[in-house]
Write a structure and sequence with these properties.
The complex is a heterodimer.
Chain A: H1 2-6, H2 10-22, H3 28-46, H4 49-65, H5 75-93, H6 113-131, H7 135-145, H8 150-157, H9 161-187
Helix pairs in contact in A: 3-4, 3-5, 4-5, 5-8, 6-9, 7-9, 8-9
Chain B: H1 2-18, H2 27-39, H3 47-59, H4 68-95, H5 102-110, E1 142-143, E2 156-157, H6 168-172, H7 174-179, H8 204-216, H9 222-225
Antiparallel strand pairs in B: 1-2
Chain lengths: 188, 240
């Protein structure tokens, strides 16, 4: 997974954060490391390029301004907590924001048109199933897809680890049921 | 118990996937995660945006303003709000009582406090043929002694509450007060006092005579106040 490749050990983040607290220009490696994750998470939640850019700007500005307030723990969880709050604020201020276009497809020159069509169908089915989950279950899945561990998701959502595990389990069970049902419907 | 084990196993497997350990992960989860990743794929940030944002962060500037997409509705809302406020202000101005022009209001608020020991200098004529206010035992008019602040000119103020005053326009119009005349017309239809130097002052004498004649009439009589048109007059039917 892309996020797996980009994630680094917590100790690495801690060193970079300590350097950034002394000199703001040392924030650059952290910015480069998390810009893509935060932008994609914002885009997934808000559904447009403009909104994602606005939210990403707010997240990094708040992170740089409040870096002294970061004490310990996972920097990634702390940054995603900011992103989670910014996205909620943004969605509250602009409730007319449109949902994510389910037909976005990353460019892939090797696929044939038939493969592309099948792939688009599968993506539509998964997106529909995902949209049928409860908001908490959706948040857990979105944060999982952003590359956060269970403990980090619990920190971001302000829940305990057991609650997050349960939400995750229910979400996956629900998704499998829905996808199975849709498949049966299509095949039948 | 089985469900609890499943819940923990799913969480551990997913954490292992994030660490890149795929050997002991449930293949079904791996398949689901791949499908989810495809379904939730989004475009990444453009390099221009990344550079621009970093430059702004380096300068320590506040977060950039919202995109023009969001600014347009804000401007429209601000314009509509400004129009609504302007309309409300105009409506409030139009609702003001025409019998209380700004000058009179200012005179009433700036009038010095009546001195109870000062001798009365001038008593305005407030009781006329059309005066309808009931007589009261409280002093109706307070006469203010000349004060150095006003160049020795006497100022008159009505000590009664505003609702009890018989006719505020007459009390505030020095020319009519000096002439001892009152205007019997309804408040909104009265002629405005002329400004000094106005060419309309030439008609003052004629108007004064006209107003005096008005005062002599019994204007409280309904037939005199509201003269019906000839075709509206009641026809007297001779009694049989």
């Amino acid at each position: 997974m892309r996020s797996c490749e980009q994630s680094t050990p917590e100790g690495d983040d801690a060193v970079l954060v300590a350097a950034a607290m002394r000199d703001r220009r040392a924030f650059a490696p952290l910015y480069r490391r998390y810009l893509d994750l935060i932008y994609r998470y914002s885009y997934r939640r808000l559904g447009s390029r403009e909104a994602a850019e606005d939210a990403t700007s707010q997240v990094f500005y708040r992170a740089m301004a409040g870096l002294d307030g970061f004490r310990s723990g996972s920097f990634r969880a702390w940054l995603f907590t900011i992103a989670h709050n910014v996205v909620i604020d943004h969605a509250r201020r602009h409730p007319q924001a449109f949902p994510l276009d389910p037909l976005y497809d990353p460019p892939d020159d090797t696929s044939t048109p038939e493969e592309l069509a099948i792939h688009a169908d599968q993506r539509r089915a998964v997106a529909r199933a995902l949209a049928g989950l409860s908001p908490d279950q959706q948040r857990v899945i979105e944060l999982r897809m952003a590359g956060l561990t269970g403990a980090e998701i619990a920190e971001v959502l302000g829940k305990n680890a057991a609650a997050v595990k349960m939400l995750q389990f229910r979400a996956m069970t629900n998704l499998r049921e829905r996808l199975g049902g849709q498949k049966d419907t299509i095949d039948g | 118990m089985d469900e609890l084990r499943e819940i923990n196993r799913l969480n551990d497997d997913w954490d292992a996937l994030l660490r890149g350990e795929t050997r002991e992960v449930d293949p079904a989860l791996l398949r689901d995660v791949m499908a989810l990743r495809d379904a939730t794929a989004t475009p990444g940030p453009s390099p221009e945006f990344a550079d621009r944002l970093w430059r702004e962060l380096e300068r320590g500037r506040p977060a950039p303003a919202l995109s023009p997409r969001w600014q347009i509705p804000r401007l429209a809302i601000a314009a509509v709000l400004a129009l609504v406020l302007l309309g409300a202000a105009v409506a409030l101005l139009l609702r003001d009582d025409p019998a209380e022009p700004a000058g009179q209001l200012a005179a009433a608020t700036e009038a010095p406090v009546a001195s109870p020991t000062a001798p009365p200098i001038e008593t305005p004529h407030v009781a006329g043929p059309t005066a309808t206010a009931p007589p009261s035992e409280t002093p109706q008019v307070a006469v203010v002694s000349p004060t150095p602040d006003h160049g020795g000119a006497s100022r008159i103020t009505d000590a009664r509450p505003e609702r009890d005053r018989p006719d505020r326009t007459d009390a505030a119009c020095p020319a009519r007060r000096r002439a001892g005349l009152r205007d019997a017309r309804p408040v909104g239809q009265r002629r405005r006092p002329d400004r000094p130097g106005s060419r309309h002052r030439r008609g003052d004498e004629r108007r004064r005579r006209h107003d005096a004649a008005d005062d002599r009439r019994d204007t409280d009589h309904p037939r005199r106040r509201f003269r019906p048109a000839p075709h509206h007059r009641l026809r007297r039917v001779p009694a049989r």
